[in-house]
Amino acid sequence: MEMQANETTREGYLLYIELIAAVQHISEGEAQARVSESDFLARLHDLHERHMAGEFSASKLADLLGVPALNLYDLLETMELPVRYY
Amino acid sequence: MTEPTQSSYILDTSQLSILCRFPLNRQPYIHTVISVIRPVIPEAVILEARRGTSTIAQVASPLVKRGLIETRVAPPEPRLLDEVYEDELGSGERAVIRLALSTGLPCILDDKDAFIVACRFGLRPLIFQDFIIDLVHKHGLPVQTGIEVIRSTSRSFPAMFLAHSLRRLQDDRGPI
User: Fewer CB within a 10 Å sphere, N or C end of chain A?
Assistant: First the structure.
């Protein structure tokens, strides 16, 4: 169970790195140097919790994470996190 | 004889993600939708999609490249939208509202705050299920297809909307 959670986290982190590397026009190595997996997880869970509580929209969550809005849904699914559509 | 012009609707990323993701393991609903209307999305949204490597991007990007999903640049006005609502609404939702204001096209917004803000700017946005109902009532989407789309995606929306939407789908007179 724990191994599966780790794989899910790793997969989500690598997707995040790929996305921000594309958005910021940097290599994935540079992106990884800027954002560690633990920093990514802490920020994602904090922002996601606030989004689910209704503090801001999904599009704003994407902006705050620095990822393309359309890809946010894939990132959350990869991380097995629910989406609030309304 | 010229082809009839398709009606356009401005979509936000949330609706596009649903249409590209559902139904699971079959051709995504976006292909059905583009057969009856022309989805329009803000350019910022599709720049995002082009760069993505995800499932949604893989479905949406080819349709954008073929012009079956249209992208438009949202004007900067009204600036009040950014000044007042930047902390709560994302750039995508604000772009949808600006595009709807500048073009007069109907827009679809499901986020409650974005929906209310759009109304405050004088728009009458649709939620996803009303958009599907519009496709049935005004654009020739078969009723059974509309029911299937709404049923299969209903868990993404408030449960209380489902019965109303299904009733409206079977009523040619429009809103009950």
Answer: N
